[in-house]
UniProtKB/TrEMBL annotation:
It is a multi-pass membrane protein. One of its GO terms (biological process) is phosphate ion transmembrane transport. Pfam families: MFS_1 (PF07690). Its main location: membrane. The keyword Transmembrane applies. This is MFS transporter. Keywords: Membrane, Transmembrane, Transmembrane helix.
């Protein structure tokens, strides 16, 4: 497939943005779906908190392991081919999950799903760097992240309302069909961009990965990626609902409503970024400034949730809104490196996010089991676990506050 020399706005929206947006919608739906179906899984399969954390976090583990190979593949083969193939693996994982009847099968299926969606956001960001001018990348990041937020919204109250009719197995059969359809749309609808395929040898590609991983600019953002982005994913994908049910004493339906408004907040935040990032940057308020303000506020809101001060529905919604600024990290960090490394840069920083999500999601489950065995009730143990997460966020915010010293890369 070849690309037109001067693509129109309709072309960019219909054949570049929308296929990537659909893939990321599906990715985020799958990332967060276990938060709502967790009571069904524990009830049907008799899982402990650690089992549930492990089952859910295998998505993050496989996703994280795939990031560096995916980054190399995106820079070498282009996002169209890479994402289409991986979405077929997503479909296979969804079928295995829908038919699984034990922890080993379901955990393996969840890992396949994580592998399959591992390029959904990174492929979109790589595609945007190829097709859109750099000054629009912050807005495009906001728009595609809003599609992910819409997937998270779908996986909250709407899914909870559907479960009595289709069950959690039926939901995963539907996901399998959507995955195959998305793969076909991306492969057959999206054009290739001239220059989107690299000619590096594997050794040269690995040198590019090393160039990213040894850079102080990369490590200056790694902590925020792990504990803000990864921590938010762990709460959104699993532990928000147990907190709301055990600490606040809400029913599952009311907890799902809170998760819905958390995701609505994230959706509104990403849409706001999409609309305002470019005009604000022209006035000197850069994506980095946006991250610094937003993530500081996210710590304040999480602290209020911990001490149970304020209306819970509003607090969780605001947490989603301000946490949306963390997604600007991908564009900010990519802008510190040559464009030829953009796929590897974004996947390396995403690796840190998913290492954090895996560690927080599984780690909280193991910690909760230990605390409960020591005599704490569910609410007390959750408070301790959430306090540890907030402390990690505070520590990782320090280098972010000093990140303005890094200078953007100038290609050419």
């Amino acid at each position: 497939m070849s690309s037109p020399s001067s693509p129109s706005s309709a072309f960019l929206a219909g054949r570049i943005f929308l296929p990537f947006a659909l893939g990321y919608y599906l990715s985020y739906l799958l990332r967060t779906v276990n938060a709502v179906i967790s009571p069904d899984l524990t009830g049907e399969l008799g899982l402990s908190a650690a089992d549930l954390g492990l089952l859910t976090s295998t998505y993050f583990f496989a996703f994280g392991l795939a990031q560096i190979p995916v980054g190399i593949a995106l820079d070498r083969f282009g996002p169209r081919r890479v994402e289409a193939v991986l979405l077929l693996i997503t479909g296979l994982g969804a079928v295995l999950f829908a038919t699984g009847d034990g922890l080993p099968t379901l955990a393996s299926a969840r890992g396949l799903i994580g592998l399959g969606v591992s390029a959904c956001l990174m492929g979109g960001l790589k595609g945007f760097t190829l097709w859109f001018p750099r000054e629009k990348l912050a807005s495009m990041t906001g728009y595609i992240m809003s599609c992910g937020a819409l997937g998270a919204v779908t996986a909250s109250a709407p899914l909870e309302a559907l479960l009595p009719f289709i069950g959690w197995r039926g939901a995963f059969w539907a996901v399998a069909a959507l995955s195959v359809g998305s793969a076909a749309l991306i492969f057959f609808s999206m054009p290739d961009k001239e220059g989107s395929h690299g000619s590096e040898t594997l050794q040269e590609a690995l040198r590019g990965v090393r160039e990213v991983l040894v850079a102080r600019e990369f490590w200056g953002f790694s902590g925020q990626s792990a504990f803000f982005t990864g921590g938010f994913m762990a709460l959104q994908g699993l532990w928000a609902v147990p907190w709301l049910m055990e600490v606040n004493g809400y029913s599952r339906a009311l907890a799902a409503d809170h998760l819905f408004w958390l995701n609505i907040g994230m959706l509104a935040g990403q849409l706001s970024i999409g609309a305002w990032a470019t005009p604000l940057a022209r006035r000197g308020f850069t994506p980095l400034h946006m991250m610094q303000v937003g993530l500081f506020l996210s710590m304040v809101v999480l602290g209020l949730i911990l001490v149970e001060v304020g209306p819970t529905l509003l607090l969780w919604c605001v947490l989603g809104y301000v946490s949306a600024t963390g997604a600007q990290m991908y564009g900010v960090v990519a802008g510190l490196f040559p464009m030829k490394l953009s796929g590897r840069v974004t996947t390396c920083i995403n690796l840190m996010a998913f290492v954090g999500a895996f560690a927080v999601q599984w780690g909280l489950g193991g910690l909760l089991d230990v605390l409960r065995a020591s005599g704490m009730d569910g609410a007390q143990s959750l408070r301790v676990a959430f306090m540890i997460l907030l402390a990690a966020q505070v520590a990782s915010f320090v280098p972010l506050a000093r990140a303005g010293r890094y200078k953007p890369w100038q290609d050419g």
